[in-house]
Amino acid sequence: GIQVEQSPPDLILQEGANSTLRCNFSDSVNNLQWFHQNPWGQLINLFYIPSGTKQNGRLSATTVATERYSLLYISSSQTTDSGVYFCAVGYTGANSKLTFGKGITLSVRP
Amino acid sequence: DAGITQSPRHKVTETGTPVTLRCHQTENHRYMYWYRQDPGHGLRLIHYSYGVKDTDKGEVSDGYSVSRSKTEDFLLTLESATSSQTSVYFCAISERTGGSSGNTIYFGEGSWLTVV
Questions:
Q1: Which residues contact A71 (CB under 8 A, 6 or more apart)?
Q2: Which of A39, B8, B101, B102 has the most CB atoms within 10 Å of its CB?
Q3: Residues 41-100 of chain A whose Cβ lies under 8 A from any Cβ of chain B
């Protein structure tokens, strides 16, 4: 199956700092999504980004499918950004399903 | 709000008893999934469905069965619960669409299951 590796596994930031989270994957995929799990366990979809770049407020993501990696950028971090960030990859189509990385735990300190 | 409801949200059960978790959606999406989340493993796919009565296994399907008799409901059953099935279970939905949203997946709020 597809292998997904996220780095770094843990990240501690001071409020206001910027960060880059990385996702490497082992196969050519056409479905890649980033999720944020808040401290209460809720999973929120941040981006559907199989290729290219997207931005949503302070967050942006870039996927270079040919090189099998994706980056999630968080600018001017806030304490509410704390939680676990998951990258998930897979394929679209009749049997669409995603394989998740183990996540990056982000702690933003005031 | 993706219109996903999981029930029960919390359950404690004894080893060997059957347990059914329910996922209900109001969006009429075709695809539904059950994942489990455990420390150090991230989220792992148990079973998924791509239509009514169309289901398939994921990577950790042993000990679990599913049923989907209506578009809106996807049931996960533990026939005989074991302590290794203590976990947080997430239901998710998606729909194939064109454009920039593609197969975006939305999760329910999770069901915490403890098998004692």
A1: A20, A21, A22, A23, A61, A62, A63
A2: B102
A3: 41-45, 48, 50, 54, 86, 88, 92, 94-100
